[in-house]
Every structure is written in C-alpha cells, then in structure tokens.
Amino acid sequence: MSFLKRIPLFIIAALLVGIKTYVVYRFYFGLSMETSFQEIILFINAIAVSMLIFFIAVWLKPKSQKRFIIITSVVLSTIVLANLMYYRNFTDFVTVPTLFQFNNAGDLGSSVGSLIYFSDLLLLLDVILVIAFTKMNWFRVETFSSMFRRRIIVISFAAIMINITLAEIERPMLFKRGFDREYLVKNVGLFTFHAYDAIITASTQSKRLFADGSEMDEIDEYVDENVREREEAIDLTGVAEDKNIIYVALESVQSFVIDEELNGEEITPFLNDLIEDSYYFENFYHQTLLGKTSDHEFLLDNGLYPLPNSAVFFTHAQNEFNALPEILKENRDYNSYALHANNGSFWNRNVMYETLGYDEFYDIESYDFDETDEIGWGLNDKKFFDQSVDMLKDAEEPFYSKLITLTNHFPFEMPQEEATIDQYDSSSVTLNQYFQTVKYTDEAVEGFFDRLKEEGLYEDSIIILMGDHYGISSYHNESMGNFLGKEITPYEEVKLQRVPMIVHIPGHEGSGTLSRISGQIDFKPTILNMMDIENENDIVFGNGLFAEERKPFVALRDGRFVGEDYIYSGGNCYDDSTGELTDESSCNELVEQAEQELNYSDEIIYGDLFRFYDFEDGEVVQD
Ligand code: GP9
Ligand code: MN
C-alpha cells in the first residue's frame, strides 16, 4: 500500500473523472465519430479538462484538498448527468439561456423518470471511488512544494493547449464561429463548452445592459433618409398574396456557374431554363461572413446584417427581432416552416428559429434515410426534396417555407457513378469537384419542381431560389482564373461573391433578367412588397428588389462593397466599367456610408435595440 501513498489523490480523481466523461461522451451521448482523429481529440479533451480542474487541489491544504476533490467530482458528475437527461429529451446540450427558459425545464421535469436509465448508475462509479479513496487515505494528500505546483500548472496548461490546437485543426475557427454545440462538445468537452457558453452569454448580456433605446432615434432617421423611399418599378405589389412562398437555399452555388458550360455540358441546365421564365437578378451578392448559411438566413428574415466576429444565430438568439415569419403570421396568418436535413442544433437553429417565429422545424430527425442516401454532409438533395414535398403537402396553406440544400457543400465530394458531368481539370481538387455537386443540386431542384407540380402545390406558390454564399474561396483563385479565362484580381474576387437569385412566379408574364445591384439584405422587403404588407416603420437596410429607387450600394460584410459605378475591395477603389483601379476619392463617400450602415445594424443586435422600438407606430419606447 505504501506504493499507492506516493500517487497524489487529485491525480487519481482527475483520471477517474476524465475516463468517466470520455465513456459518457462516447457511449451515452453516442456522439458520432467520423475519423480516428476525432476519437483522439475526444479522449484527450476529457482527460485534459479534468486534469485542469482537479489540479487546483495542489494549492490547497490537505484537509481542504479532500473536500475539494469530493465536491468537484460530485459537481462534475451532476453536470454530466443533467446534460445527459437533457440530451435524451432534446438531442442538445444545456446552455445558460435554456436554463432560464422554464418551459424547457418544465418539459424535462415531467419526464425525469423516463430519462434516467439503470445503466446511469455506472456513471456514479467515479464519485463512489473518489469518496472511498479519500476516506481510506489510500493516496497522497499533503501540502505540495512550490516546484511541484509549478510543474502541475505547466502540465495541465500544456494538455489544454494540445486539446485546443487539435480542435482548431479539426474545425478551424471553432470558438469564433460556434457551429454546432455537438461539435464543441466533441472537440473541447462538456465543461469547456459550458465555460464558453457562459462567457458568450455574459458578454452579450453586458453589451445589452448598456443600451437604453436612445440609440434608436438616430438609426430610425438614417433608415428613413437612406432606405425607406422606394417605388415599384415593376409592379408586383401583392402578387404573392394568398400564395405559398417556397424559398430554396442553394448551398454554395455561385453565379459564375449559371449559363456556363464545362466541356460543352451545361452545369446548371435546369436553373438556366428556369431563369428564362423567372425574374433573375444577375448582380445579386451574398453578404454573409462567419455564420455562412445561418448568416444568409439571418439576412433574409431580418433585413439586418450578420455580425462581424461571430455567428449571430449563436450569440444573439435571445434578442427581439421583427422577422418575416412573425410578420407574415401577424398580418396574413401564415405558418412558417423550415426544412433542413441536418442536426437541429447546427448553427443553433433549433433555438433561433423559435425566436424568428417559425412554427415548425423539420430537421434531420424528420427524414428517413440510410447511409446509401448520404452524400457529403448528409442526406442527398434529391431525397431531401422528395421527402420535403411530402411534408409541405400536409402543411397548412398558405405558408412560408424555407428548404436548405446540403449536397453542394465543401469539399464537394460525391460518388462518381452518380455524377453527370465531368470534373474540371486543374490543380484545385475543390474546384474540380464543385461542378459535379452543383449539377447534382440542379437536378434535385428539377425533381423538386416536378413533385410540386404533381402534388398541386406549384400553381399556388411563388418559388424563390438563391445561393447562400460562395463555395469556392479565394484560395482557389488560380484555378478559378483558368476556368473563367481571366485573372482573378481583387475586383474580380468581389464579382465572384454574386450568387443566383431567382424569383419564379408560376403563370406570370413579363419576367426577365435584371442587372440592378442587389443583395440578400433586400429579400425581406421584397417579400413584404409581394405580399402587399405595409412595412413603413420597419428597420431594415435593404430595398425591395423590384423598387426603382434603391440604395446606391451593396455592402459585403467584410468591408468590401459594390456601388453603381465603383467597387471597393482590399482598400482600393475600382472603376466598374473597366475593372481598373481608380482614384480612392470616388469611393470615399460610399466607404463611409457602408461602414456607418454596418455599424448601425451591429448596434441594433448588440444592444438588442428592437426591445425599445414599436414597429406599429415607428416610435422609440425607452425604459
Ligand atoms: C449546415 C448547413 C451548411 O446545417 O447549413 O452550413 P454552412 O457550412 O454552409 O454554413
Ligand atoms: Mn451554406
């Protein structure tokens, strides 16, 4: 037994709890592991975090050390068990905001019994052992030397750094972007995730506390002077009244593939035909940043910009918004549905959709498929659309619905036997493969239209399709330049941020291609105009796409912008008629306005300012 006496108790506790948390992640939560690298990260984070927490013991006196070790293992086990029960009910992890949502806690309360399994008893084994070891004085508990303490600090921080570095390799920008709670837990563990969540909540709440609504007057004035005046150039006011609105997000589809060929084959034959019979905006820009797909969803439903340094879906899902689903419900009694075959917690959608007013979210759990139906990130677009139509068929009409595709997602891999177009031949594997997945999505959309017609949904709907953001980053400029037959300058890079935007109105005559500069920020006012819903007091930074008088620029979220005559990129001003550099002063005025506008939008979100604004009469209501 004297040999055991040499091992410090806190190390034993750290290992026991670390191994237990690993077992829970792996076998109780059933987190999916795609690679052995993920397995390793999962194991390392469980041990590293547990070490960091228990190593605090070296600073304590022997008696407090024992107390600390027991209390810590009980608290950590409670956190794990609480999350496990929550996960079994909601397939998600506990967050600070959910703790304050009593309806969730209530749901859980009533079903606690059915959420605890007999096998959960095993999860208390570490606590029992820690208590027993402490009582029996088997392991070393003493006042440690300062040399030993220093070593322990170095070891535990090194372990955490290794964990964070590996996590960054596995998911670049994990902390900045958040992605999915499941990713966070997989990569940095449950306890670090809770710390991260607490820090984000505290920082958003503190910014919110300083706002008192006085900021809204200036913003309202800006919107009044710069955004609100508009007249319909093409009169489509009310065209969508009583119709279903079916919005389709085309994952990573950029405008450069439209009407383009690869080895003599059209890349998007169906979309090309559809455009002939639709309004097509050929100078339409995505305005997303870190939150990618979710940023585009935010833009569409709110007419506000996403945030410069986080995914707004993640950080501000508790804010008050004035989103499309809510407005459509209030004014026209529309139901809103979101359909997307991915984890409900990805981009925090399961929380944000409720905030935005969606009635139903059909996530991965609503779709029926096995491995053979998967391409890339999940269910293939063809099966996705097919099953989505079944859901829409049963939906209460008229509705507003959003369907988000997934097959054309980076890294654009697909089984070659299903590919119907060649790969491109360049040094960029990403670009080479891209055309095949884009074509696949194009075919899936065709199938979707066929099914809508078959089910009698087509005639009563307006169908809008849009690329959510770029798919090919500037990293592939050289190959992209080869494909397009021109050098990709910073000016061309901006032009590559164009995404297709198609408004298809069945039975409508006179549509066509429009060249006006426009962007995702214009979606919400466009829908409201088409629904003939008065929105004169709304605070948005976009104009209806059919309006004659429009803001003279489209701001990208990273500081670049597109003006009517100039494009601003990389701190330089380009003449749009030549694509050549021009005098900076030509861009100055718009540089300022674009920056101002982005700041106003950020202020609204950071300060949660809509809680001080009455959209009915356009008044600011301060506390
Ligand atoms: C995830 C899907 C793709 O659910 O929307 O997200 P992205 O990586 O494009 O933001
Ligand atoms: Mn996307």
What does this molecule look like?
The structure is a single chain. The chain is an alpha/beta fold and 623 residues long. It folds into 2 domains: 4-205, no CATH class; 215-531 and 550-620, Alkaline Phosphatase, subunit A (3-Layer(aba) Sandwich), CATH 3.40.720. The protein has 22 helices and 21 strands. The protein has an 8-stranded mixed beta sheet with strand order 7-6-10-1-11-12-4-13, sandwiched between helices. A 5-stranded antiparallel beta sheet has the order 15-16-17-18-19. Helix 2 (36-54) crosses helix 10 (181-209) and helix 3 (62-90) packs antiparallel against helix 7 (125-136). The longest helix is centred in the first third of the chain and has 29 residues, at 62-90. The protein starts with 8 loop residues before the first helix and ends with a strand. The model has no long low-confidence stretch (mean pLDDT 94). Bound molecules: (2R)-2,3-dihydroxypropyl phosphate and manganese (II) ion (MN). The site of (2R)-2,3-dihydroxypropyl phosphate has 8 residues, from helix 13.
Quick summary of this structure?
Helix content is 47%, strand content 11%. By secondary structure, it is α/β, with parallel strands linked by helices. α1 runs antiparallel to α7, α2 packs across α10 and α17 packs parallel to α18.
